[in-house]
Amino acid sequence: MLEIKTYQNKKVLVLGLGMSGVNAARLLNKLGALVTVNDKQKFDDNKQAQALLADGIKVITGYHPVELLDENFEYMVKNPGIPYSNPMVQKAQSLGIPIITEPELAYQVSQSHWIATTGSNGKTTTTTLIGLMLNEAGHKAYDAGNIGIPASAVAQKAGKDDTVVAELSSFQLCGIKTLHPHIAVLTNIYEAHLDWHGDREHYVAAKMRITMNQTPDDYFIMNWDLPEMHELAKQSKAQIVPFSRKNIAGARSALIDGWLCFDGERIMKADAMQIPGTHNIENALAAIAAAKLSGVDNASIVAVLTRFTGVKHRIQYVTTINDRKFYNDSKATNVEAASVAINAFTQPIVLLAGGLDRHLSMDDLIPLVKAHVHAMVTFGETAELMNAVAEKAGIPYQQTENVKTAVPLAYAASKPGDIVLLSPAAASWDQFPNFEIRGDVFIDAVNALAESEE
Fold this sequence. Notes:
Layout: E1 11-15, H1 18-30, E2 34-39, H2 47-54, E3 58-61, E4 75-78, H3 87-94, E5 99-100, H4 102-109, E6 113-118, H5 123-136, E7 141-145, H6 151-157, E8 163-167, H7 170-173, E9 183-186, H8 194-197, H9 200-208, E10 219-223, H10 227-232, E11 239-244, E12 253-256, E13 259-262, E14 265-269, H11 278-293, H12 298-305, E15 316-321, E16 324-328, H13 335-343, E17 349-353, H14 365-372, E18 373-378, H15 383-393, E19 397-399, H16 403-413, E20 419-422, H17 435-452
Parallel strand pairs: 1-2, 1-4, 2-3, 4-5, 6-8, 6-9, 7-8, 9-10, 10-11, 11-12, 16-20, 17-18, 17-20, 18-19
Antiparallel strand pairs: 12-13, 13-14, 15-16
Helix pairs in contact: 1-4, 4-6, 5-11, 5-12, 13-14, 14-15, 16-17
C-alpha cells in the first residue's frame, strides 16, 4: 500500500456505511485523516457504526444532518448507492467539497495493476473469470469492488506485481477522479438504474468514466455486437479491443464456427464451457481478451472455462428435485438480465418473477415468456405487471407474497424435465436489503422443498 499524505490531518466525511463505507473509514483513519462517519441507521441497530466507534472513529447515526457540513470538511467519501440528489451531497457540491467513492480511495493507495469491468449485465461473471484465469496462469490477482469485496481492503494487501480485478458499478464510477485501469472492460449497456441516473444519457456517461483516464498505452475491451459501442469507442484514448459473439468484423475476441478465438487463434469449443447461455459466451470472450492482453496462456483459459459453473445468484444451479432443475438468478434486477436467463435454456421454464417497481415496462418479456415459459409465479411490487406479461403471453400464473412462498407453487406448476428459474426482472429492495439475500431465501426454500420430497 502506498502511504499517501493526501488525507493526513484532513477532515473527511464518510457518508453511508455498508462494507465500502466501513473499509473506507478504516483506511482513512490509518492514513491519518480526521474521520467522521454519518449513517442513517440508528446507532443501537448499527453494528458497523458501533465497531467504528470502538476504533476511535467519530460516528453520527440515525439521520443525515445537513448542518454537519458546516464543520469545514475537506473531502467526502460517499456510499455509491446514495444519489447526488441527496441534500448532504448537494450541499457538499455547493461548498466545493471533493466527493469520491470508495474504489477511487482504493486506487489512490494501490500499487498494483488494475483491470476494471463494468456493464449493465455480465460484469460479475466477467470479473470472476478474469481473476480465475490470471491466477490459473500463476499471476496473483484479487477480485474487488462491486463484486462484494471492498477495493479499499484489497488495495492494502495487493503488491506491486499483483493485479486488482475490479468490478465497478455506474454508481461507483460517478465518484472516481484518478482511477486508471490498464485494461477496462465494458460488457454491454442496456437501460438500468434510470431512477438513480435520471436518464439513459447520464447512465451511459457514468459507464464510460471507466475509460476516462486511459491513455494510448491502455486497452478498452468493448462489446462490438452492440452498434452503440462503435460510437462510444471514439470517446476513449485507449486501444479498442472489440469482442463479438456474432463475429463482427474487427473483433479480436470472437466466436468463430463454434470456437472461442482471440486474434483468429482457436482456444476452445464454446460448448465445452460449463456455464449455460449465449450471454456467457460474451462474458467469456471479454474475459479471454483481458487474459490474453495480460499474458495468460490458452491452457489456463481452457482450464477455467471448462470447470467454472457460475457465480452465485447469476443463473446459479441449486439442485434437482424429481427431474426439475432449480436455478437462482436473483441478480437479474432488470428485464434485460431476465431475458438473458430465459434465453439460456432450451427446456421449458417455470418462471418466478417480481420485485421493486421502478415504473418500467415489462413488455419486452412477453415474446420470450410465450416462447420459453409455460407457467409463472409472481410476487412483490411488480406482481401485477408480471401477471400482465403472463396474460399477454397466454400462460397460467399465480401471485404470491414473496420468493419463499413462490417456490412450492412453482414446483407444483412444473413438470419433469422443467427448469424452475428465479429471474425476477426487478430489484429486490421492495422486500429485501439486496439481491443476495433474496437469492439466499430462494436457495433455502428450494433446499427445504428438496428435504420434504425425499
